[in-house]
Amino acid sequence: MITEIKGNVMYFDGCSTVELAEKYGTPLYVYSENAILKECNEIKECFPDKYENTRVAYATKAFCSIAMCKIMEREGFCMDVVSGGELFTAIKAGFPAERIEFNGNNKLREELELAIEYGIGRIIIDGLQELHMIEEICKQKNKKINVLYRITPGVDSHTHNYITTGKKDSKFGIPLDADVIYPAVEAAINSPFVNFKGIHFHVGSQLFDNCSHLLALETTLQLVKKTKEKFDYDITELNIGGGFGVTYTDEQRKPYEYFVKPVMEKITEFFNQLGMERPAVVIEPGRSMVAEAGITLYKVGSIKEIKGIRKYVSIDGGMTDNIRPALYQAEYKGVIANKMDMPADDVVTVCGKCCETGDVLIKDGKFARAEQGDILAVLTTGAYGYSMASNYNKNPIPGVVLVKDGKSAEIIKKQSYEDMIERECYVEL
Ligand code: LLP
């Protein structure tokens, strides 16, 4: 068990959360390595170990750090990066360049140059303009690179509007209008500077229904067929993105198999019928790999009861270390980690310390009676927490600790005030 209760204290992967808070200070992001490995194993079992010619590329945007890159490297995963910064982190972690793929709707020339220089495995191109930029760079550097096209499959997935990415009206991917997609495909096939491997889509995030993936796949397979008919070209890779939902409060998480099995069946059947070899299939999970493997520890500060209305429990972090409730109305569960033996019967609103009314992490949640100095743990914060943290109100970004079987180590040092002003100066003009 990753989470256990011993006496009155919550333990996470064998470590007392109270001791972690004391040792490293709060706020503190804590990741369980065993929980991450559990995700890796579940994915491996139902995907790369089960089907030949399949790969998993962890979407680093969910949590990007040297330590995470090292774990992914050791587990044999590939990595999906979306910026020069993520790419740089992976390379600095010693992650093999050929196992990196690069996504993004507006990759900068210098990011593409870096990617081509490093010799990464794939660039997932978002439009014809990007293809031309890649061709220029490859020509200059005398290199050739593997590419896929990200398409906009025109699927409206059922999730928060900000994280649905496959709709027709989207900044991501290439629209499927015949006069747009086929010239782009033809240009990639004929380019001497790229190896055109195939098609990528990503329909959205935090999904619990496989129908969006299956609908997008249907469209993609038609495109593969048309590409064969029009250009006599065999597509050798399909990337179906990520988006697999996790449990924050009472969502029913689906096993990876629920998503990948029907996808693999559909792909296999389609290529069997066409008499073509099945292309490689890639998935790109981000959130599901790390969300439940992470918690955030805070210290309780000011407590205010507004009679007949609400009780506010303030913590020493907030929207700067977890923007998701403010940005997406995301809901979380939390516990008083040093009062696990007490009934959670006090309804309180957990708010952060930022000068912002919307800085609320948990609205009207049930907790054991909180007092100043208690350790409050917010659960399932491993994805898009640290990676979206900010210095708003000049709050330092908390440190990150990795725990495993009762051992702990800091994998990202917390920012100091000095760190925050290190690059600042005033020049009188
Ligand atoms: N592949 C591509 C091309 C993506 O755009 C994304 C996520 C993923 C993979 C990974 O999706 P996941 O498995 O994590 O759902 N900040 C938001 C999530 C934004 C996701 C953007 N793209 C949040 O905190 O909910």
Automatic annotation (TrEMBL):
<feature type="domain" description="Orn/DAP/Arg decarboxylase 2 N-terminal">
    <location>
        <begin position="35"/>
        <end position="291"/>
    </location>
</feature>
<keyword id="KW-0456">Lyase</keyword>
<keyword id="KW-0028">Amino-acid biosynthesis</keyword>
<feature type="binding site">
    <location>
        <position position="384"/>
    </location>
    <ligand>
        <name>pyridoxal 5'-phosphate</name>
    </ligand>
</feature>
<dbReference type="InterPro" id="IPR022644">
    <property type="entry name" value="De-COase2_N"/>
</dbReference>
<dbReference type="InterPro" id="IPR009006">
    <property type="entry name" value="Ala_racemase/Decarboxylase_C"/>
</dbReference>
<dbReference type="InterPro" id="IPR000183">
    <property type="entry name" value="Orn/DAP/Arg_de-COase"/>
</dbReference>
<protein>
    <recommendedName>
        <fullName>Diaminopimelate decarboxylase</fullName>
        <ecNumber>4.1.1.20</ecNumber>
    </recommendedName>
</protein>
<comment type="subunit">
    <text>Homodimer.</text>
</comment>
<feature type="binding site">
    <location>
        <position position="243"/>
    </location>
    <ligand>
        <name>pyridoxal 5'-phosphate</name>
    </ligand>
</feature>
<feature type="binding site">
    <location>
        <position position="324"/>
    </location>
    <ligand>
        <name>substrate</name>
    </ligand>
</feature>
<feature type="binding site">
    <location>
        <position position="356"/>
    </location>
    <ligand>
        <name>substrate</name>
    </ligand>
</feature>
<feature type="binding site">
    <location>
        <position position="287"/>
    </location>
    <ligand>
        <name>substrate</name>
    </ligand>
</feature>
<feature type="binding site">
    <location>
        <position position="384"/>
    </location>
    <ligand>
        <name>substrate</name>
    </ligand>
</feature>
<comment type="pathway">
    <text>Amino-acid biosynthesis; L-lysine biosynthesis via DAP pathway; L-lysine from DL-2,6-diaminopimelate: step 1/1.</text>
</comment>
<keyword id="KW-0457">Lysine biosynthesis</keyword>
<dbReference type="GO" id="GO:0008836">
    <property type="term" value="F:diaminopimelate decarboxylase activity"/>
</dbReference>
<comment type="similarity">
    <text>Belongs to the Orn/Lys/Arg decarboxylase class-II family. LysA subfamily.</text>
</comment>
<dbReference type="InterPro" id="IPR002986">
    <property type="entry name" value="DAP_deCOOHase_LysA"/>
</dbReference>
<dbReference type="InterPro" id="IPR022643">
    <property type="entry name" value="De-COase2_C"/>
</dbReference>
<dbReference type="GO" id="GO:0009089">
    <property type="term" value="P:lysine biosynthetic process via diaminopimelate"/>
</dbReference>
<feature type="binding site">
    <location>
        <position position="328"/>
    </location>
    <ligand>
        <name>substrate</name>
    </ligand>
</feature>
<feature type="binding site">
    <location>
        <begin position="284"/>
        <end position="287"/>
    </location>
    <ligand>
        <name>pyridoxal 5'-phosphate</name>
    </ligand>
</feature>
<keyword id="KW-0663">Pyridoxal phosphate</keyword>
<dbReference type="Pfam" id="PF02784">
    <property type="entry name" value="Orn_Arg_deC_N"/>
</dbReference>
<dbReference type="GO" id="GO:0030170">
    <property type="term" value="F:pyridoxal phosphate binding"/>
</dbReference>
<dbReference type="Pfam" id="PF00278">
    <property type="entry name" value="Orn_DAP_Arg_deC"/>
</dbReference>
<feature type="domain" description="Orn/DAP/Arg decarboxylase 2 C-terminal">
    <location>
        <begin position="29"/>
        <end position="382"/>
    </location>
</feature>
<comment type="function">
    <text>Specifically catalyzes the decarboxylation of meso-diaminopimelate (meso-DAP) to L-lysine.</text>
</comment>
<feature type="modified residue" description="N6-(pyridoxal phosphate)lysine">
    <location>
        <position position="61"/>
    </location>
</feature>
<dbReference type="InterPro" id="IPR029066">
    <property type="entry name" value="PLP-binding_barrel"/>
</dbReference>
<keyword id="KW-0210">Decarboxylase</keyword>
<feature type="active site" description="Proton donor">
    <location>
        <position position="355"/>
    </location>
</feature>
